Amino acid sequence: xxxxxxxxxxxxxxxxxxxxxxxxxxxxxxxxxxxxxxxxxxxxxxxxxxxxxxxxxxxxxxxxxxxxxxxxxxxxxxxxxxxxxxxxxx
Length: 90
Ligand code: SF4
What we know:
By secondary structure, this protein is of the alpha+beta class. The chain has a single domain, classed as 2-Layer Sandwich (Alpha-Beta Plaits), CATH 3.30.70. It contains 3 helices and 6 strands. The structure holds iron/sulfur cluster (SF4). Iron/sulfur cluster binds next to helix 3.
């Protein structure tokens, strides 16, 4: 099974607001790191070239905060209770 096939089997309860917010001072080098490190590929450039985060597919792994550092985000927290990825065991 490919990574994309595996990610497609995940179940999410999306929140209305993003639990992770990019800081306005984020530079291109930091964003390039985020694009590389996020295992779900959620950091992308839109058609206008703006840095965006598709937070609804977040795996809550914390790699982005670990690699880019807390200064890359004006907010980084877990989704609200009952929202986010639904982890399945077994
Ligand atoms: S916590 Fe993990 S999955 Fe979520 S945005 Fe950061 S790197 Fe991507």
